[in-house]
Write a structure and sequence with these properties.
This protein is of the alpha+beta class. The chain has two domains: 36 residues, no CATH class; 106 residues, Nuclear Transport Factor 2, Chain: A. Helix content is 32%, strand content 23%. It is elongated, with a radius of gyration of 29 Å.
């Protein structure tokens, strides 16, 4: 009984001491946003200058605004590369990879799900061909229109029936050039 009482007193004393001690102040370590060698964001606890990286802050970005948008290889640099990436996604039967080539702004969940099902059908079914229509890769063009007035597009021709290549359908996806990259739209 004596041992139990002394243990309780020791425990209570230790707890009271811990509660009375001031809490260690939380360190407010700043987080620095820098720009990596390939243009990717790098977050660090050290200033960008210490890492020999340019700052990723808005003021630094405004001071070093490039004349033209930079493409760091994460997106298609021209219409032909966009077509090649679409072909590679279809060859790999990868709907997510194909979806990454599209701009999705302004689409709600139900519409996006319907479009994902559409892309899954494309990569799962036999594709007869991919063709660029009216696209130029000029840097100033925002998906230059062909002479007939229609917008530049990627045409995807696929067989409706895998055993009958004559029964085919064609989907037309407009091309958009934005921020140095080429994209598909629905």
């Amino acid at each position: 009984m004596r041992r139990a009482l002394s243990f309780l007193l020791l425990t209570a004393g230790a707890m009271a001491g811990a509660l009375a001690a001031p809490a260690a102040p939380a360190q407010d370590t700043p987080v620095y946003r820098c720009v990596g060698a390939n243009g990717e964001p790098v977050f660090s606890g050290q200033p960008c200058s210490a890492l020999r990286l340019p700052s990723g802050s808005a003021s630094a970005a405004a001071a070093e605004t490039p004349a033209a948008p930079q493409n760091h290889g994460f997106c298609a640099a021209d219409a032909e590369e966009l077509r090649e990436r679409a072909a590679a996604a279809i060859d790999a039967h990868d709907a997510n990879r194909l979806a990454a080539l599209f701009l999705w702004q302004g689409m709600d969940g139900a519409a996006a799900l319907a479009r994902l099902h559409e892309l899954a059908a494309i990569v799962d079914g036999p594709v007869l061909g991919l063709q660029l229509e009216g696209a130029t890769s000029a840097p100033a063009a925002s998906a230059a229109a062909p002479s007939d007035g229609s917008a530049a597009a990627l045409l995807v021709r696929r067989a409706i029936d895998p055993w009958n290549a004559v029964a085919a359908e064609e989907a037309r996806y407009p091309l958009v050039q934005r921020d140095g990259c080429w994209w598909l739209r629905f």
